[in-house]
Design goal:
By secondary structure, this protein is an alpha+beta fold. Helix content is 18%, strand content 47%. It has 2 helices and 6 strands, in the order βββαββαβ. The strands form 2 sheets. A 4-stranded antiparallel beta sheet has the order 3-2-1-6. It has a two-stranded antiparallel sheet with strand order 4-5.
């Protein structure tokens, strides 16, 4: 598996894009790093070292993602979160889909057959 991290830039708004990502696209001219994942471990190749610490910390740590939430009939609020071990496919997908955007970053994932 290979993950390529880019900065994001303003782009067109489409119905297929989640509302919190509306109007952004990957800026392929501003590549940050390439991460190669093999046998449950990742190796980094930084093109732009300015965000090296942030990207390393994000991918080297376990990941969590929100799956549901609500309010019970008696008024209590609840959230459900999934936890994923570092370098698992689920963790990488959660980081790419949910976490990078908050740092003005986005990524592509290439899966190996």
């Amino acid at each position: 598996m290979r993950v390529t991290v880019y900065e994001i830039k303003p782009g067109p708004r489409t119905a297929a894009t989640p509302s919190w990502q509306q109007g952004t696209v990957l800026d392929k001219r501003r590549k940050q790093c390439i991460i190669t994942i093999k046998d449950g471990k990742g190796s980094f190749k930084f093109v732009d070292p300015s965000r090296e610490k942030l990207i390393r910390e994000m991918f080297d740590a376990p990941s969590s993602s929100f799956v549901s939430g609500g309010k019970s009939p008696d008024g209590h609020h609840w959230d459900a979160i999934e936890h994923h071990p570092a370098w698992s496919v689920e963790a990488i997908e959660a980081i790419v889909k949910e976490q990078l955007y908050g740092f003005n970053l986005g990524a592509t994932i290439e899966y190996e057959d």
